[in-house]
Amino acid sequence: MRALRFHGYQDIRIDDIVEPAIKPGHVKIKNAWCGICGSGHEFAGTIAELAPDVSDLAIGNKVAVFPIITDGTCHWCEQESYGLCPNWGFLGYSGLGGGMAEYIVVERKAVHKVPDHVPLDVAALVEPLAVGWHAVRMAKPVPEDCCLVLGAGPIGLAVIHALVAHDIKNIIVSEPSALRASQARQAGATHVLSPRDIDIATFVRENSPHNAGAHNVYECAGIPAAFQAALGSVRGRGMVINVAIYENAILEIPNPNALNRHQITIIGSNTYTRVEFQEVIDAIADGRIKNPETMITGRLPLEKAIDDGFGKLLAGVEGHVKILVTPASSPGEA
């Protein structure tokens, strides 16, 4: 079968590899779509084969795959805090096959059935949407809260979709890219601003209850300026939720006493639980997550994924948010 595989730095190739065989307690999936996130773990497809001891699913069922792999034995796995497991990883990036191959065999517990009316390209968005869903669940906002999202890339958009699904009425988004700003509006943001044109902290204070700032700030940009904007925008007793991954050190905090005086909470949000993964599927199915397909800005066959997918995203080409790749032999199979 064909598989897109990582061989080294900027070395991605389409290889012919042995099709995986079914084994007890496992499910064989024909992959339909996989989102580009550098690791091949955002994917959905249909069941192609079942082990004899798996009786609660059927061949042809649409499914999304819970991609986190762990040792399953440590304290953190027992708590479903999978990102804290010392041996955690993702299907694809960490081995065991991934979504950029024609087939994958996974444990039954990793398979989440998707309703027939949900398209498989949308089902491939469950994983990034679950990251945003988890971040919102951690902060526990209520509809009256003012929430600020810094950055409207795939994860920022996932946070916006989750906030809308939780009936938050005042969602302010900071995003300099015109495309991603448009995506934020489509996702349901109340105000979308460019930090190049306006002071975000001032706007947030002027447009929040009692002019006090945001109850929750979701930092999804991963740059020092965004972190500083988060601290400047959050209200007393508010919360900054760090969802982004940083490539470099962030700047020092100019006034660290503000954290103490204003009783600000800073938390990190990482991955999601199996329950939250299923909650996202349910929210897509019943319409609480509205039009998630607007996140998709490209759909490519496997042979075009290297140049037109990874290449353009790595080069920062304007015009893309989430590119999906199908390993199907023909477009009609996806």
How is this fold's topology laid out?
Layout: E1 2-8, E2 11-16, E3 26-35, E4 42-50, E5 62-65, E6 68-69, H1 75-78, E7 89-90, E8 103-107, E9 111-113, H2 120-123, H3 126-139, E10 146-150, H4 154-165, E11 170-174, H5 178-187, E12 191-193, H6 200-206, E13 214-219, H7 224-233, E14 234-242, H8 257-261, E15 265-268, H9 274-286, E16 296-301, H10 305-314, E17 322-326
Can I get a quick summary?
This protein is of the alpha/beta class and 334 residues long. Helix content is 27%, strand content 27%.
Relevant terms:
334 residues; alpha/beta; Quinone Oxidoreductase, Chain A, domain 1; Rossmann fold; seven-stranded mixed β-sheet; six-stranded parallel β-sheet; 17 strands; 27% helix; globular
Strand content: 25-35%
Q: What is the terminal separation in angstroms?
A: 16 Å
* General shape: globular
What do the pLDDT scores average to? 93
CATH topology of the largest domain: Quinone Oxidoreductase, Chain A, domain 1
- Structure class: alpha/beta
Radius of gyration: 20 Å
Q: Describe the largest sheet.
A: 7 strands, mixed
Q: What is the annotated CATH architecture of the largest domain?
A: Alpha-Beta Complex
Count of DSSP H/I helices: 10
Q: How many DSSP E strands?
A: 17
What is the helical fraction, as a range of percent?
Answer: 25-40%
CATH class of the largest domain reads: Alpha Beta
Q: What's the structural domain tally?
A: 2
CATH superfamily of the largest domain, called what?
A: Medium-chain alcohol dehydrogenases, catalytic domain
Order of helices and strands: EEEEEEHEEEHHEHEHEHEHEHEHEHE
Uncertain runs are none
